[in-house]
């Protein structure tokens, strides 16, 4: 038993862990997600500083630090708190937090503690309890507390009998619960079969045959893995020792045999990597390959195929604590988990600390797969349906409305706002991942796009599939889909040969959809026609060589002001500014009333309003502020000059108009609102929009 201080010895850990503070306090995530800062505030501020569900702990972090010199629980809690303070960094807030009075509370839906810091200096004006750390409890399966504490100790090896038994149980339960999806499915063109007690692997051509198979999702890494090429084709057909393969492939073959699945599909061994035609054909079938697999094995922890994913796992520092509940006295293990999983337990689903989660191709592999075993640094997870089960006994179930469930579980409503919002969320998440080959940006999402088209468009969408999907956007959601913004605009664009400038796929930057904060938006532009040029005819969800959108718009010439990063527009004596985010390189607009001077690097820039947020949050919270239309910025396309009557442009940026009542600056919120309603909306309603082409 660990040594505990007098304060920790007197804690009723069972009562504290069972106290659900969410009935009294609401959790608020900090603005900077990367720092994982959370805080609690009362649902009813009039209650004041109530300790009904909070257990007083040390009066300051310094007192905790002193006690941690001898007390093991104080030391564990201090480890968690110091990690949080390190993530915050040194600033004025850090100094305030170190002076907070500490309290303990229970965690939601699991057994453990939360460490809260009460900012007493704020008094009753603003009640804030910072989430500074956490402690999880778990027991062995034979513990007297096993019927009360749900978490279990995880074996160090994922190849242990206990771990393998858990995986088999997950597979059996998923099959029993959904017998209609357990029929043998059509095999991919090529699969691997293991013979002679996992000592030999054979490449088989079994296209159009039906059987169960597993698929591997893995990181290729900087060094190319063992690959199927024309010169290795016959040797793999004849069979090679499994010891010749990289460790991740060996691990996947071993696991496939243990789970009694006859075949395994690995992209680098089942697609001819030196045959472009074979690669194009097989990559276009990713929706079927992962969608039909009985199981996807996700090698989350391996940076490349040489590392393997069945080695010893990371072990958290743990201590043993006395635990008394319902007349049972025994012991629990305790460790300090990452704060993000204390504040937001469902984030274990993101697997954000694993190398595989940073690879672009694997996002669609995950969404397309009906069953997945995720092998991480700390434990194994099983994902099936809307539930995500951990080897330690923790389970997270997402609601059917969650975009992740909407996309991955065939619950996509036909061409609805929920459907399109789910896609935009997936695209934003996908754009943050890495690609080995830049040209794969659209193909690496093509399988998911194909599944999405089949499920969401169906008979209710466009009748021509080639007219539905447009370089990562959808025809029926094109105005909203064009409202993407670059997160890191200093990165150079990928080039028009990969995707048209209006597509998010044309930039190397990650992107986001700021307009998705708003449910109701009214279009200010009209799409008349939209097309893309496919690199491979018939491969609708693969690479493109270009594309064009014919739109009816209101086109505004914008200018700059010295010292301002924004673009400005004067319209009917009303001045408003547009917050500017460039897609790639920055442009220099001319000053007001002057033509662009190319010798000085100035470019004539046009702003096109796409959509109008009628009931925006800023208007309700700040009556003198208006967040106006979302714009895209265009420049004339020099390659298309004088080629036709309709002017042609390239997209170079985006932004939202902002106006507030400031007579000194000439800014007028009401004036912008009237401009939107009386000019932009009227032009659209009366069919007086100008036709332009964007390439």
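Sequence proposed for the structure above (695 residues):
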């Amino acid at each position: 038993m660990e040594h505990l201080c007098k304060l920790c010895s007197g804690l009723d850990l069972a009562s504290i862990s069972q106290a659900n503070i969410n009935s009294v306090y609401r959790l608020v995530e900090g603005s900077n997600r990367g720092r994982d800062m959370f805080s609690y505030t009362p649902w009813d501020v009039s209650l004041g500083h109530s300790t009904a569900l909070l257990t007083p702990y040390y009066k300051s972090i310094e007192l905790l630090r002193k006690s941690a010199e001898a007390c093991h629980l104080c030391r564990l809690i201090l480890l968690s708190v110091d990690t949080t303070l390190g993530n915050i960094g040194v600033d004025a807030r850090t100094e305030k937090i170190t002076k907070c009075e500490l309290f303990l509370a229970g965690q939601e839906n699991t057994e453990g503690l939360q460490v809260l810091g009460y900012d007493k200096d704020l008094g009753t004006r603003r009640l804030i309890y910072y989430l500074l750390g956490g402690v999880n409890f778990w027991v062995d399966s034979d513990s007297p507390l096993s019927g009360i504490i749900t978490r279990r100790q995880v074996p160090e090896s994922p190849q242990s009998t206990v771990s393998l038994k858990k995986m088999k149980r997950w597979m059996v339960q998923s099959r029993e619960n959904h017998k209609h999806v357990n029929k043998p499915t059509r095999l991919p063109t090529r699969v691997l079969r293991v013979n002679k007690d996992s000592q030999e692997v054979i490449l088989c051509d079994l296209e159009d045959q039906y059987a169960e198979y597993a698929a591997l999702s893995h990181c290729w890494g900087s060094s190319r893995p063992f690959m199927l090429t024309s010169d290795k084709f016959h040797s793999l057909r004849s069979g090679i020792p499994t010891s010749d393969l990289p460790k991740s492939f060996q691990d996947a073959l071993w696991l496939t045999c243990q789970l009694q699945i006859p075949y395994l599909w690995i992209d680098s061994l089942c697609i001819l990597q030196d045959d472009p035609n074979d690669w194009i054909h097989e990559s276009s079938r990713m929706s079927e390959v992962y969608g039909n697999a009985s199981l996807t094995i996700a090698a989350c922890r391996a940076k490349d195929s040489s590392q393997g994913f069945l080695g010893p796992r990371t072990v958290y520092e743990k201590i043993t604590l006395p635990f008394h509940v319902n007349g049972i006295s025994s012991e629990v293990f305790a460790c300090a988990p990452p704060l993000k999983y204390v504040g937001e337990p469902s984030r274990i689903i993101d697997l954000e600390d694993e190398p595989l989660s940073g690879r672009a191709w694997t996002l669609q592999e995950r969404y397309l797969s009906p069953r997945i075993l995720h092998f991480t640094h700390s434990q194994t997870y099983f994902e099936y349906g809307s539930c995500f089960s951990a080897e330690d006994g923790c389970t997270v179930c997402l609601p059917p409305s969650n975009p992740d469930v909407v996309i991955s579980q065939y619950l996509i409503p036909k061409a609805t706002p929920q459907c399109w919002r789910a896609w935009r969320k997936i695209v934003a998440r996908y754009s943050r991942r890495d690609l080995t080959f830049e040209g794969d940006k659209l193909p690496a999402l093509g399988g998911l796009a194909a599944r999405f088209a089949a499920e969401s468009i169906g008979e209710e969408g466009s009748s021509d599939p080639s007219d539905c999907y447009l370089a990562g956007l959808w025809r029926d959601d094109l105005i909203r889909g064009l409202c993407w913004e670059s997160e890191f605009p200093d990165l150079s664009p990928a080039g028009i040969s990969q995707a048209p400038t209006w597509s998010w796929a044309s930039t190397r930057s990650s992107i986001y959809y700021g307009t998705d904060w708003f449910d109701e938006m009214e279009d200010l532009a009209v799409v008349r026609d939209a097309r893309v040029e496919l690199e491979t005819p018939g491969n609708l969800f693969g690479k493109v060589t270009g594309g064009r959108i014919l739109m009816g718009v209101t086109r505004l010439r914008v200018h700059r002001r010295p010292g301002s990063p924004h673009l400005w527009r004067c319209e009917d004596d009303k001045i408003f500014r547009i917050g500017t985010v460039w897609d790639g390189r920055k442009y220099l607009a001319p000053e007001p009333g002057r033509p662009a001077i190319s010798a000085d690097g100035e470019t004539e820039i046009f702003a096109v309003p796409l959509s109008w947020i009628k009931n925006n949050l800023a208007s309700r919270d700040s009556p003198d502020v208006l967040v106006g239309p979302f714009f895209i910025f265009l420049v004339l396309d020099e390659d298309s000059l004088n080629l036709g009557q309709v002017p042609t442009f390239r997209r170079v940026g985006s932004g939202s108009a902002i106006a507030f009542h400031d007579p000194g600056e000439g800014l007028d919120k009401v004036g912008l609102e009237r401009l939107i309603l009386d000019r932009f909306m009227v032009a659209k309603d009366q069919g007086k929009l100008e036709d332009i082409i964007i390439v």
